[in-house]
């Protein structure tokens, strides 16, 4: 599972990391960001050339990603990227909300001035990208996904529950994978929700913040499904 100390979609090596660590993060990012498509066969020889990792290392990586439900194991036929479906999106959105609403309440109860400053700073970056997208600029949806994660992560970062944060990080990626596969941004509505979320979090109104978060995520689900690009089953 990705460390929250390393950027979620950082593909470069860091001190102390192995070739396998970097390959794992690259393959995982390519699945989450939609570069590797649902049901795409993950042939070891092709992956070896693309990600510069040995066959045994790649088997370990794919087995690990299968445990995260980003990859499926096909027995003797090898591995493929996990499928998507309407039911799958609704299920992962429910799990995200279960984790994030709990973490948000804990974070708001324990958060200090520095935490509130981090929330505001994370929103500033997200708002800049959203403003560019709304104005027809060249910001990529992939960039928006990174800052969207950064903002939501900041709001729950004071929850003091490392296991919860790690699980939420993995679930969030599986949820955002659907957004990357349809490449559709909700525009001003999403931006306004993020702004209101920032204000509620900073003001300490936990009930209203949780209510808005639930609405925000559920609206995102309906937006993705409205594109018609997610199979019903």
From TrEMBL:
InterPro entries hit by this protein: GntR_C (IPR011711), TF_FadR/GntR_C (IPR008920), Tscrpt_reg_HTH_GntR (IPR000524), WH-like_DNA-bd_sf (IPR036388), WH_DNA-bd_sf (IPR036390)
Alphabetical list of Gene3D superfamilies matching this protein: GntR ligand-binding domain-like, Winged helix-like DNA-binding domain superfamily/Winged helix DNA-binding domain
GntR C-terminal domain ranges (all copies): 91-219
Annotated GO MF terms: DNA binding; DNA-binding transcription factor activity
Sorted UniProt keywords: DNA-binding, Transcription, Transcription regulation
Record flagged with keyword DNA-binding: yes
Keyword set includes Transcription: yes
PANTHER family per the UniProt record, alphabetical: HTH-TYPE TRANSCRIPTIONAL REPRESSOR GLAR, TRANSCRIPTIONAL REGULATOR, GNTR FAMILY
Protein name: HTH-type transcriptional repressor CsiR
Gene designation per UniProt: csiR_1
